Amino acid sequence: MTEADRWDPDQYNRFAAEREQPYWDLVSLLAPVDHPRVIDLGCGDGRLTALLHTTLGAAHTLGLDSSAAMITASDDHSSAHITFARQDIGVWEEPDAFDVVLANASLQWVPDHAAVLGRWAHSLRPGGQLVVQVPSNSDHPAHLVAAELATELLGDPPPDPVAQNVLAPERYAVLLDQLGFERQHVRLQVYLHHLSSTVDVVEWVKGTTLTRFKPAFGPEGWPRFVDRYRERLLALEGDRSPYLYPFKRILMWGRRA
């Protein structure tokens, strides 16, 4: 199984309502712009990108994602003014091209955030705005159990990108200042998700953090890994109904001078 096909749009969207709230919280940080040129980095299946285009009254919106499955799904939302392409957002740069650069729950998948944010900032026009949200929840049992079990089974599993790549909120504030953003807002926010049961949190992470193990386990080993993960998490957390899933996220906004 390749890196490109580890994403499943349907699995990811099982908790679409919960995942959407940080997206719109990001959008609410934006100052109004007349007919902006917008890019959504890590656009997924493009559904929110299309809504963003309408919400901002954008002249043109481009969505980029590294997943072939997600970009294929985005065909349903493309138009003359909303386009999508498959590309690595970690290396993307288009100097002085956009009024809004948005990245929701995607930056954590790439390393060296200082360099990446520098390229994104360079892609803004004067007065342009950057809005980014990254999860900061790698210390939750649902994530710790995954790393522990994968280490037992694989020996040297792919690392948790959140634990490896995501910085402290204050570090992002410093970076935004160093990159020349004259105004900024950075905060750590806890979202409380009331899931129907502990099993639901398994389905949640199966669409995100667990996907990094898919290539290593392959088509036959992946379902067995998920089953063992479910057993391990239930033994630790109990079979609770409902299950309260607190999720920490960092939201940041900056406007270029």
* Percentage of residues in helical conformation: 40-55%
- Return residue spans where pLDDT drops below 50 for at least 5 consecutive residues: none
The 3D shape can be described as globular
Label the structural class.
alpha/beta
- Tally the helices: 10
Question: What is the CATH topology descriptor?
Answer: Rossmann fold
In terms of DSSP E residues, the strand content is: 15-25%
Largest sheet: 7 strands, mixed
Total domain modules: 1
What's the arrangement of strands in the largest beta sheet? 3-2-1-4-5-7-6
* Count of DSSP strands: 7
Could you say what the CATH architecture is?
Answer: 3-Layer(aba) Sandwich
Give the full name of the CATH homologous superfamily.
Vaccinia Virus protein VP39
State mean pLDDT (0 to 100 scale): 92
Gyration radius from CA atoms, angstroms:
18 Å
Could you tell me how far the N terminus lies from the C terminus, measured between alpha carbons in angstroms? 44 Å
